[in-house]
Amino acid sequence: MSLTTSTKFAQPLPLNTTSSRSKEHKLLFEPFRTNTFLGSTHKLRCFNSLSKSNLHRRSAIVAVSDVVKEKKSKSSTNLLITKEEGLELYEDMVLGRAFEDMCAQMYYRGKMFGFVHLYNGQEAVSTGFIKLLKQEDSVASTYRDHVHSLSKGVSARAVMSELFGKATGCCRGQGGSMHMFSKEHNVLGGFAFIGEGIPVATGAAFSSKYRREVLKEADCDHVTVAFFGDGTCNNGQFFECLNMAALWKLPIVFVVENNLWAIGMSHVRATSDPEIWKKGPAFGMPGVHVDGMDVLKVREVAKEAIGRARRGEGPTLVECETYRFRGHSLADPDELRDPAEKAHYAARDPITALKRYMIDNNLVTEQELKTIEKKIDEVVEDAVEFADESPHPPRSQLLENVFADPKGFGIGPDGRYRCEDPKFTQGTAHV
Amino acid sequence: MLGIIRQKVGAGGASLLRTRSAVSALRSYSSAGKEMTVRDALNSALDEEMSADPKVFLMGEEVGEYQGAYKISKGLLEKYGPERVLDTPITEAGFTGIGVGAAYHGLRPVVEFMTFNFSMQAIDHIINSAAKSNYMSAGQISVPIVFRGPNGAAAGVGAQHSHCYASWYASCPGLKVLTPYSSEDARGLLKAAIRDPDPVVFLENELLYGESFPISAEVLDSSFCLPIGKAKIEREGKDVTITAFSKMVGYALKAAEILAKEGISAEVINLRTIRPLDRSTINASVRKTNRLITVEEGFPQHGVGAEICTSVVEESFGYLDAPVERITGADVPMPYAANLERLAVPQVEDIVRAAKRACYRSVPLAAAA
Ligand SMILES: Cc1ncc(C[n+]2csc(CCOP(=O)(O)OP(=O)(O)O)c2C)c(N)n1
Ligand SMILES: [Mg+2]
Questions:
Q1: Distance (Å, rounded) from C-alpha B194 to C-alpha B285?
Q2: Portion of chain A with pLDDT greater than 90, in percent
Q3: How many other CB atoms sit within 10 Å of the CB of residue A318?
Q4: I need a surface site. Which of A238, A293, B159, B200 has the fewest CB within 10 A?
């Protein structure tokens, strides 16, 4: 097999020691195909060997990798994207970049507070994956979640207002920078603790499968994409979920945004085998390594992985090699990363790269791209104005949303539920 | 200055002999008004204990090359090398367990949590491997380990990063839970924690790291140590007792100043240790003032204040002239928006108001936010 230099992949190969059982698997595979969910462990084991479809996928991924390389080197024929797709990707990446640059300004002006982690440099990953998703598909993010939310369709106004701590934010100012949620757009949340988004995302994938197979919602083919960093891949929750996702063939894509650093901890200093993609096959799923600074390559790999999940063929682990152009958060002095390393990746800016691709291939004109940039500047300006003018959350909001059923606050001295007292939300709960 | 020393000598019986020479040295220092930040106090305590005992080592995320997420371990990697200042991957369950295992086998690990919020991923080892082993093994396996890092609300970091775990850990037998406020506390208690043969949960506060406090020569002496389980009376008073720990001690002291102007003399107790709780100091104070306000940033239910109330009801019920009041964080996850966040954590005014109520002064209704 021939691999491109920038896209590596690996498949879970059937272990030699299980060769006698794999025959049995083949026999059992088809009859249980439509009813794999939570059956006996015997059945589950059968489906996880997946030898047939693995071999199939394996060739498919090789093909993708080669296509990416081949097509890139060719001229205007056989392009990887249409003009419309290219413009959509470009607009999304420019939005991500401009939004985050604005956040930095607003943070320094005291409009937002706490920990603010920006996504600059990693746009190709968010755009490459999320723009392929349907609204019903879910995304789980980390504390670096503004851009994932934007890509998934949450408006710049709603994200900016959230960051300003305003009532018009996507979580009414209750969540903040690290905790973006949108039920409408199926953003499952920004999770501030390392690794915790992974099981939650795996649970979302579990529910898709459950709805289809137990609740018989035949059209429920929703896919979940979990984004997390290289440093997170040393956390046990990552391994636990790779296992369960493969074991239960859940419709999920694990996307590692390997930006080579976890705050000031270099990936190679933290990880015994730094090739994260290799951990996929160890758990029985494909592992792919892709150049995360190239949105077209990311997109090709994403298509394959999302399609696989949607078809019910199980999870994929994708390692995107990327880089953050700013410090870990706006509070990070960022003193440990080598300037040469920064320069190396700065030269591979994913936005510039897409621009070059589209212009070189006569997909778009400079002018068309300028128009997009101008439009995005306006969107971001508008988001700031909107956020600035929006009201602060009212005092009553402090006690709202603690419970779905506020009877959880218990019964008051008058024998009625405290929440039924119209004055309940006017004081703080206890002080 | 001398007042502080007198207290220290009184409080820290064990350190009396060791510090006697330092006391005389202090006199020349005191006029100079030496100050130290809590950050430097913690750093120097770590440094001195590592230098005194090669079994002491520090592990955690970013403690080495990055010099600590909050720079508490600054310079230690350079001084003690990567074998004793270990940068770990982001795996709290893993490295905490490894720390506990090392403590079983005679080392003295100091495990830094970047913040105590992340200790949630390691709580199994803190509770089940560290706190219970001495008992389960009938004293064969002691666990001399320190878990330290910032605890509680910082500012603007939202619900997951703003949780006070004092009452959680304090509810577990086998753990000792320390909550320093000043630089003196930080130095004396961290040294005590590292020297202690049992697992200690050491709860710092991010917002105090940069704060400077006056510090005496006695406290600066490398032999300095504070007793675990002993509270400190930060300010003497006769009308109402206010208990607090960590950052809230500062608030209680501010409230006491305001109250003094209005003729109410408040006694402020810096708890220093949450477990074992210094019940006798608290009760002695309440028997004198007959009124009690407890202050903490954590949630009200099953909080530290609840435990203090119980102790006072059990031991000094007949001395109480007013209902005990608990000032706590609001009973909600921490909101992000600055105006809501302010409503969710105790403010100096809340303490003042509660103290006045306890002293039967009329209190204007709280202004709406
Ligand atoms: C359980 C836990 N431990 C520690 C932290 C503190 N922390 C926040 S981000 C981070 C580094 C994460 O690095 P990586 O997974 O590579 O993601 P990146 O920030 O590079 O996107 C750490 C240690 C945390 N949020 N949660
Ligand atoms: Mg990283």
A1: 30
A2: 79
A3: 29
A4: B159
Question: Cβ B90–A271 below 8 Å, yes or no?
Answer: no
Q: Which residues pair with A141 in a beta bridge?
A: A190
Mean pLDDT, range B110-125, rounded to an integer: 98
Tell me which of B172, B200, B220 is where a domain ends. Answer: B220
Distance B67 CA to ligand 1 centre (A): 16
B48 assigned to active site: no
CB A348, CB A326: distance < 8 Å: no
Q: Give pLDDT tens digits for A302-348.
A: 999 999 999 999 999 999 999 999 999 999 999 999 999 999 999 99
Q: Does A10 touch chain B (CB under 8 A)?
A: no
Which of B165, B199, B220 terminates a domain? The answer is B220
Q: What share of chain B is helix, strand, coil (3-state, %, to 5)?
A: 45, 15, 40
The number of C-alpha atoms within 13 Å of A304 and in the hemisphere containing its C-beta is 29
Interface test with B, best of A200, A329, A398, A426 (most B CBs within 10 A): A398
Whether residue A296 is found in the same domain as residue A419:
no
Taking the C-alpha atoms of residue B107 and residue B103, their distance in angstroms, rounded to an integer, is 5
| Domain ranges, residue A248 | 65-396
Does the residue A285 lie in any domain?
yes
Enumerate the residues of chain A whose CB falls inside 8 A of the CB of residue B66.
Answer: 263-265, 336
0.95 surpassed by complex ipTM = no
- Please provide the DSSP assignment of A95-163 as one string: HHHHHHHHHHHHHHTTSS-S-----TT-HHHHHHHHTTS-TTSEEEE-SS-HHHHHHHT--HHHHHHHH
Q: Which residue has the least CA distance to atom 21 on ligand 1?
A: A229
pLDDT category, A427, cuts 50, 70, 90? low
Structure tokens at A158: 């709603």
Contact A232 B121 (CB under 8 A): no
Q: Torsion angle, CA of A187/A190/A195/A200, rounded to 10 degrees?
A: -40
Here the tokens at position A132 are 């392929």
The tens digit of pLDDT for each residue in B18-47 reads 333 333 344 444 446 899 999 999 999 999
Identify which of A173, A265, A392 has the shortest CB distance to residue B61: A265
Compare all CA atoms of chain A with the CA of B348 and give the residue at the minimum distance: A431
The residue annotated as part of the active site, out of B161, B184, B267, B296, is: B161
Distance from CA of B333 to the nearest CA of A (A): 7
- Contact at CB, A114 and B62, closer than 8 angstroms: no
| CATH number (domain holding residue B209) | 3.40.50.970
Report the candidate in A112, A189, A398, A395 with the shortest Cα–Cα distance to residue B334: A398
Q: Which residues in chain A are closer than 8 Å to B326, comparing Cβ atoms?
A: 430
Phi, psi (rounded to 5 degrees) for A113: -145, 180
Is B92 one of the annotated active-site residues of the chain? yes
In this predicted model, what pLDDT tens digit does every residue of A373-385 receive, in sequence order?
A: 999 999 999 999 9
Q: How far is the CA of A280 from the centre of ligand 1 (A)?
A: 21
| A9 CA from centroid of ligand 2 (Å) | 21
